[in-house]
Amino acid sequence: MKVAVSIPEELFESAESLGKRLRVSRSRLYATALAEFVAKHKGRKVTERLNSVYGTQESRLDSSLARMQARSVQEEPW
């Protein structure tokens, strides 16, 4: 699909230089950059949803369980 976009000239020149150095077409460079940007933000959405689900849960460790864990570590030879 063809799309027309406007970007700052400095960014365009940097992209042109990078494309030549990597020996990839302008279309390939822009498509790769956009795909990485979208993937990065997709991960953030998952994190936000997990935070909203688990943000209401109590995260403190039960005190008796914490004592048992501390005792078990002390018994291990290091």
Structural class: mainly alpha
What overall geometry do the principal axes of the alpha carbons give? elongated
Please mark out the parts with pLDDT under 50 across 5 or more consecutive residues, or reply none. Answer: none
Supply the number of helical segments: 3
* Biggest sheet descriptor: none
Q: Can you characterise this structure?
A:
The chain is mainly α and 78 residues long. Helices cover 72% and strands 0% of the residues. The termini are far apart.
Describe the structure in brief.
With 78 residues, this protein is an all-alpha fold. The chain has helices spanning 9-22, 26-54, 63-75.
What labels would you give this structure?
about 0% strand, 3 helices, mainly alpha, about 80 residues, single chain
Please outline the helices and strands.
Layout: H1 9-22, H2 26-54, H3 63-75
